[in-house]
Write a structure and sequence with these properties.
The protein is α/β, with parallel strands linked by helices. It has 13 helices and 13 strands. A 7-stranded parallel sheet has the order 3-2-1-4-5-6-7. A 6-stranded parallel sheet has the order 10-9-8-11-12-13, with helices on both faces.
């Protein structure tokens, strides 16, 4: 061990998609990195995650079902196939039974699920739980949070914007921004094409990135998993062609090469973006970022060279900002070096997770011996 106490941690992943590359989204990427990092630090980690995930051991009670769609075109990030919700509930019930029986095997639960059940484990199993809030408030999770007010439970949020949104609903959370592995997200040499990456869903609005590139007369490449087939067919496919290309979901090394060989990255959320991991990833490659200023986006870009924000939905302003960033990068190649350095300093996974490690250790302590954790909230 390179730090204090070895922890026995049960990490609870979101249930919809397996933790494996190419990652289904930023949430899955974050939890995948979390498990890997905690184990590298010497902690004993058990994973509760969807079937097919990396890192799963031989503990069937902690395997969650994955959605099975009758037809691929029906798959969705917002809906479930018939019977799936009940299957997930049953899996969490089985996990709770096992957790109660083996309570002595775990010090703390590191919960990233969007399901309310793991929140209540702090009350039902008497085990400390740290729940990371990765999304705007969800009603089932709010109800669960109200049930554990007197339990050994701590909430953390990935941005100030997300923390404020939950606080309005009565859930207070400390802020721990996400981190990325800057040893894996390496500096690229840049290029002429623009890039957009992420989940292909309406709230991420990649069609607006295509429109902005068209406005600027630039070529753009889109990468990511299709999370809404209807949206993809109606809004993306008709816009593809000479000036826009879709390359599908990519594993991290390939995505790093694509983003790092681009002139500028566009980030186009049209919802209260909790964090925007693709921003930190692009900056770590040295690629500048032009983004809609909504949710936690401005926090991720705060103090970053090679970045610009515009009013959400303003395609003309986004095109202008992106074109200026791309032109500046072409004139001043060292901009990519400075952008990368700033991203490493502000978003490296190691810096973030040392603080998370302290929160897990503090939460795992008996109430009688807890003191304020030595971290800057």
């Amino acid at each position: 061990m390179r730090t204090g106490t070895t922890l026995r941690v049960l990490v609870v992943a979101p249930s919809r998609y397996a933790l494996r590359q190419p990652h289904a989204g930023g949430l899955e990427a974050c939890v995948w990195d979390r498990v890997r990092w905690l184990r590298e630090r010497g902690h004993e980690v058990t994973l509760c995650a969807a079937d097919g995930s990396d890192f799963l051991g031989d503990v069937p009670e902690f395997r969650l079902p994955t959605p099975e769609w009758t037809r691929p075109e029906e798959s969705s990030d917002t809906e479930y196939p018939a019977g799936y919700a009940a299957a997930v509930d049953a899996a969490y019930d089985a996990a709770l039974e096992r957790l109660i029986a083996d309570r002595h095997l775990y010090d703390v639960v590191d919960n990233h699920s969007l399901h309310p059940a793991p929140i209540r484990w702090s009350r039902e199993a008497g085990i400390p739980v740290v729940t990371t809030l990765h999304t705007p408030p969800l009603e089932p999770m709010l109800e669960a949070a109200a049930d554990v007010r007197d339990s050994p439970h701590r909430f953390v949020a990935v941005s100030q914007a997300t923390a404020r949104a939950w606080s309005i609903e009565g859930v207070d959370a400390f802020v721990f921004p996400n981190g990325i592995d800057t040893d894996q997200w390496t500096r690229g040499s840049g290029g002429t094409s623009w890039v957009w990456s992420g989940r292909v869903v309406p709230e991420k609005a990649p069609h607006l990135a295509i429109e902005a590139a068209r406005e600027a007369g630039a070529h753009i490449v889109l990468a990511g998993r299709i999370g809404d087939v209807d949206y993809f067919e109606q809004e993306i496919v008709p816009r593809l062609g000479v000036h826009a290309r879709y390359v599908g979901p990519l594993r991290q090394p390939d995505l790093c090469r694509l983003v790092g060989s681009s002139a500028v990255a566009l980030v186009t959320p049209m919802w209260e973006e909790p964090f925007g991991l693709v921003i930190a990833e692009a900056l770590a490659t040295g690629t500048p970022v032009a983004a809609f200023d909504i949710g936690g986006v401005s926090e991720v870009l705060n103090g970053m060279p090679g970045s610009a924000t515009v009013v959400p939905g303003d395609i003309v302003a986004l095109a202008k900002a992106a074109a200026e960033l791309a032109a500046h990068g072409a004139r001043e190649p060292l901009t990519r070096v400075w952008t990368r350095r700033a991203a490493v300093r502000q978003h490296s996974l190691a810096q973030r997770y040392r603080e998370v490690e302290r929160v897990l250790a503090h939460t795992a302590q008996p109430v009688s011996v807890r003191r304020a954790p030595a971290v800057a909230w």
